[in-house]
Design goal:
Elements lengths: L4 H34 L3 H17 L1 H11 L1 H18 L6 H15 L2 H12 L5 H30 L1 H22 L4 H13 L20 H22 L1 H7 L5 H4 L5 H22 L4 H16 L11 H22 L2 H5 L6 H29 L5 H21 L17 H5 L4
């Protein structure tokens, strides 16, 4: 299964992430109907949309540590089962408090998806294919976002918004059954376990540097990854949370238009992610340094995505959709390289999911910020989305500069000297 099976493994990760995003985005699609039924104002809806991100961000670091300890085969289905349960339970909520509680619990489980998938890629793919493999599982987020609009809208139209949570929750259970039947550890890991069992004792581990989990925060590169990913997700989460409401309230989209034209940015972003992964790997195979290949794609994608700010100044619906599509595709282009970084810079294989969880913790603080910030700006700006969109464009530029100037050389982070050493500052830069 080692060669051909690795693409099946990535496809399973892709499906998990797609389900993850359908389950988190269904609230955004159902938001206008929930708002009407429960009589919620824009500020309350913004708080409700942000609820997921509090626990999702908080659990990234512990879940990353957990994945590195038990492996993705156990951690990923555990995460999917948890979030599927609380997706379905959301249908029983009849107050804002109950909905908020369900979203908090949903976020705990969904925190395990990306660290697990980053771990899988690091085990199954070498550096020459890592960005494309990453782009495939990461595109599940865009596929999930794109599918959530027409699928959830269709369910709501026929059976109401509560049914959308039950149906999407059941899909996760089906995925778990498939994962447990198909997924096995990479052949190299299985062969090692067999040799250890035959010898009656563990084989000698490779001589990796000893880096404690807490020491990861002493690297400048990791802080640059955290800031840069925060900025990228600040823009991305507008699409996942407020974008359907923006199309309905400010652009006058009907439910039918929401399920057709409203999916165009997400559809373009799928292709953008795949092109980003292929480009990043191709540049490296053609002799570019890993640092130059990764940073060119990440920085270029984020700078281009700043065009989202221009959408606030056009009245033409198709120009608006074109700008959103370009912005979302550019973000996905950059994300393929961003999610390759944990495996690229991890000081040991036992730190990949941990670093993935740490950068994803920072990035999902943006989810809290963009949802509540947009709700507040709508209240202060008489329903105008101009300020949130221009702010998103500014964060895209800030993120590009973070990856360009704060993140150091893309290579395994060097071991850190003890505190007090004159070499600490040089090592902590993450570049040698």
């Amino acid at each position: 299964m080692q060669k051909k099976g690795r693409w099946l493994v990535i496809f399973l990760c892709f499906l998990a992430v797609a389900i993850n995003y359908i389950d988190r985005a269904n609230l955004a699609v159902a938001a206008p109907y929930i708002q009407k039924e429960l009589n919620l104002n824009a500020g309350e809806m913004g708080l409700l949309l942000s609820g997921f991100f509090w626990t999702y961000a908080l659990m990234q670091m512990p879940f990353g540590w957990f994945v590195d300890r038990v492996g993705a085969r156990v951690a990923l289905p555990l995460a999917v089962g948890w979030w599927s349960l609380f997706t379905a339970v959301t249908a029983a909520a009849h107050s804002m408090l109950a909905l908020f509680g369900c979203r908090l619990l949903l976020g705990i489980g969904e925190a395990g998806a990306y660290p697990s998938c980053a771990k899988v890629v690091s085990q199954w793919f070498d550096v020459k294919e890592r960005a494309f493999a990453t782009s495939i599982f990461d595109s599940g987020s865009r596929v999930g976002s794109a599918l959530s609009i027409p699928v959830v809208a269709l369910i709501i139209e026929h059976w109401g918004w509560r049914a959308s949570f039950v149906i999407t929750g059941v899909v996760g259970v089906v995925w778990i059954l498939g994962w447990m039947m198909i997924y096995r550890e990479p052949a190299a890991v299985a062969e090692r376990d067999q040799r250890e069992a035959a010898a009656g004792q563990p084989a000698l581990a490779p001589a990796y540097p000893k880096v404690r989990w807490a020491q990861l925060f002493r690297y400048r590169t990791l802080w640059g990854m955290m800031l840069g990913f925060f900025c990228l997700n600040f823009v991305i989460y507008f699409f996942i949370t407020w974008f359907p409401t923006y199309l309905v309230q400010e652009r006058g989209f009907s439910l039918k238009s929401l399920g057709t034209l409203g999916t165009l940015p997400a559809i373009f972003s799928i292709a953008g992610g795949w092109v980003g992964g292929l480009t990043c790997d191709a540049l490296y195979r053609r002799g570019w340094s890993l640092t130059k290949a990764r940073k060119t794609c990440i920085v270029g994608g984020m700078l281009t995505s700043s065009c989202i700010a221009l959408s606030a100044f056009t009245e033409n619906t198709y120009m608006m959709l074109a700008l959103f599509a370009l912005a979302y595709a550019s973000l996905a282009f950059a994300a393929a390289g961003i999610w390759s970084l944990p495996a690229d810079v991890a000081p040991t294989p036992a730190h990949v999911a941990s670093i993935g969880g740490i950068q994803n913790f920072a990035s999902n603080l943006a989810g809290i910020f963009i949802t509540t910030f947009t709700g507040l700006m709508l209240m202060l700006g008489n329903g105008s989305f101009a300020a949130p969109l221009m702010t998103a464009g500014g964060f895209a530029v800030l993120g590009a500069f973070s990856y360009l100037f704060i993140v150091g050389k893309i290579e395994p982070l060097p071991p850190l000297p003890e505190k007090g050493s004159a070499e600490v500052a040089a090592s902590a830069r993450g570049a040698s």
